[in-house]
Amino acid sequence: MLEVKGLSKSFGGFRAVSDVDLAVAEGEIAAVIGPNGAGKSTLFNLITGHLQPTAGRVVVDGRDITGVAPFKICGMGLGRSFQRTNIFPKLTVLENVQAAFLIHRGQGPNFWSRSERLYRADCEALLASIGLAGQANTTAGTLSYGNQKQLELGIALASDPKILLLDEPTAGMSASETHESIALLERIAHERGLTLLFTEHDMAVVFSIAQKIAVLHQGRIIAHGDPATVRADAEVRRVYLGDHG
Amino acid sequence: MKTNDLASRIPWTLVVFLAALVVPWLGSRYDIFLATQIAISGLFAVSLNLLLGTTGLVSFGHVAYFGIGAYVCGILMKTYEMPFSIALPAAALGAAFASLVFGFFCVRLTRIYFAMLSLAFSQIIWAIAYKWNDVTGGDQGLPDVPYPDLDWMNSIPLLGDLRIAGQFYVVTLVVVGLSLAAMRRIIHSPFGRMLTTIRENAERASAIGVDVRRYELAAFVVAGGFAGIAGALFGIFSRGVFSDYVFWPKSAEVMIMTILGGINHFWGPVVGAGTLVLLNQETTSYTEYWSFVLGTILLVLLFVFPGGIVGGLSAGFAWLRRKRKGVGSPEVGTAEPTRVEVKRA
Question: CB–CB of A108 and B192 under 8 A?
């Protein structure tokens, strides 16, 4: 479904991501973990076209999308959420997901219809599924941090992606928010048959839902496989020494 | 912008329009002069706000498209003796085309660089207007742009009673009204929503599939076209087109109008235009230090109403409504100032 081959990115002389190979099968939940500065966000930005790779290829569903502009990648079934919460803060919650529906369904150039009435039912159904039905008319920027993250997921889902890339979906959340949002992610991925690739620093989260884990260290993949294999890997234990098991 | 505002909004817009429409019958020639100027400036400011408030693009060169509209219309009507019904659309198209060409380069830059490049292009237009004697009249300008042929109005009761300036004001008001209605429609369309997402978060907009540059360019062209219409009207209203119209302080002036009125509300720039035109007139007639007085008043207004006059008033009305527990329509607060301005005009 998603395949990354020999992907590299240098900033000046610094190799942030170096010769990364990664494959995520359809419907799989995969995680990329690694210490701060390991290159996780860079890797994501390379996949979604926000950065141009120095070398290597990104293939989605058999289609080479290396270096394709971000706004086009979205239409190819690859949605993403960002590490910094990324919503449209002054719009209402409903308007946020509605915007994504509108552009995804080709309404962007339509300059004459009233946008507020379009796809309302879809918006409401989506908001219900991510647990924000009661806040449809709230200004998005005033939501709690956890709810903003939910909304961000909703915006990504409105484009009906096949693959969803989530950069630190639980960053900055309290323990209970983390728990809820992981349960939500798992349910949504299951319901929609989504392929999920996420980065995460919380090892409990990673080992609870990921079926496959890749460990990134100084821009290189040092281990990958199912959670048990990765957990037992000597190199991984050395990198995470004292931190996590 | 909730749906239940809608019903209460339409009558208010109509009331304002009708109030503005009776000015030539009830007001003096001076009132007509001011009202025409406010209507045209209002349209110009709203067109700028399509960039500033809706899309989040700061253009310091918006006057270029106003000027191109004025010159195209003026040249066609004076030099080529074309009717207004052709010159006006030609002015809009000419300004839109220039926006397309210049905007193509501007949207490749961000923020302050976008602002600087838009300013640079407007100075190029000014230099052309100032130097191209054969076509623009150079520093002499293009005096005596004729009024449109409005003889047909003379056979219509009421309209026939007006002098040509009053009749042209009616034409102006209709053109401005239709333009504002069109822009309002555009802002509330799916296209307008895309522009809003760019203002709110361009990175996110592109992640949901918005081709940010292309939409910014489209907004630039639409804004330029409407600025061209305002310019065309202004050239006729002031009976001539001069290179001053494209000089950069005019860009600053329309930006002050827009920010003063409030960029977060559709009618904000119209209120700002009315306020600035009236303040300008009042202070000039009372004191020779008018620019000092005007500057001080603007400074105070901007401090008291950081969201512009309309932003401040609607916040005030919202507060009053909360105190009275939800009596009255949410749009009253924002329509009110427009009415006041027109009445004073």
Answer: no
